Every structure is written in C-alpha cells, then in structure tokens.
Amino acid sequence: MLLDTALWQDFSRLSRQLKQNGTVTSDYYRLISDYCGCCCRLATQLELQRNSLLQEWCLRYALFTLAEGATCANHSAFQKQLCLDMLYMPLMALTRLYQRQPHGKAELAALHAKLKYCFHAN
C-alpha cells in the first residue's frame, strides 16, 4: 500500500498555513481542526504500513507546530487557546507509539522536556 500523496500535500499545505500569521481568526478553528485531522489520518496510514519512524516524525512535527502556534506573539489569545486545546491529539498518539517501543519511556521523557522548554522559553 502506497501513501496517499494528496494526504501528504494537505498536511504540508495546512502546516504552512498554520505557520503563516495571516490567517483570519474566524477561520482559525477550521484550520486547526483540519490540520489535526489530517495529521491523525496520515499517522494512521503510516502505522498501517508499519512505518513508525515517519509516523513519529509526522506526529512530532504536528505537536511542535501546535506548540509554536500556542506561544506565537502574533496570535490572538483565541488562536493560542485553540492550539493548546488540540495539542492532546498528537501528544496522545506519540505517547501510545512510545509505549510500544523498547526505549519508549526515555523518548517520552525527552519529548515532555522539549515541550516544556517550548512553553517556558517564550
């Protein structure tokens, strides 16, 4: 089974849109929702293909993109809160992924430390 190219393109496009600061606040909820849904579909597809390395990359990228959005000085409080509210999706998926790996506890601890740094550095 090959990866759906359109899904990768959607993930890339939505990531770029999230990182741009020109998104209208009223459209931001839809953007965040679409981004998280796309990330989860892509991660599920990668899991089915047993491509855990790419699955991890996808989930980490989404997690830190949302963390970046939650701490962006140019975002409104509403936009920051939306990013915070959706952080759980890639975080929970990464937690489950790491729990199945031999060195998962260490990976999870490192992930939490990096995430904590993102919020305390800003």
Tell me the span between the first and last alpha carbons: 42 Å
Alpha plus pi helix count: 6
Strand content: under 5%
**Major sheet attributes:** none
Low-confidence stretches: none
Shape: flat
The helix/strand order is HHHHHH
User: What's the mean pLDDT score?
Assistant: 90
Give an overview in words.
With 122 residues, this protein is mainly α. Helices cover 81% and strands 0% of the residues. The protein is built from six helices and no strands. It has helices at 5-19, 25-48, 52-71, 77-86, 88-99, 104-121. Helix 1 runs antiparallel to helix 2 and helix 5 (88-99) packs antiparallel against helix 6 (104-121). The protein is flat, with a radius of gyration of 14 Å. It starts with a helix and ends with a helix.
Q: Which short descriptors sum up this protein?
A:
122 residues; mainly alpha; 6 helices; 81% helix
Quick description:
With 122 residues, the chain is an all-alpha fold. It has helices at 5-19, 25-48, 52-71, 77-86, 88-99, 104-121.
Topology:
Blueprint: H1 5-19, H2 25-48, H3 52-71, H4 77-86, H5 88-99, H6 104-121
Helix pairs in contact: 1-2, 2-3, 2-4, 3-4, 3-5, 5-6
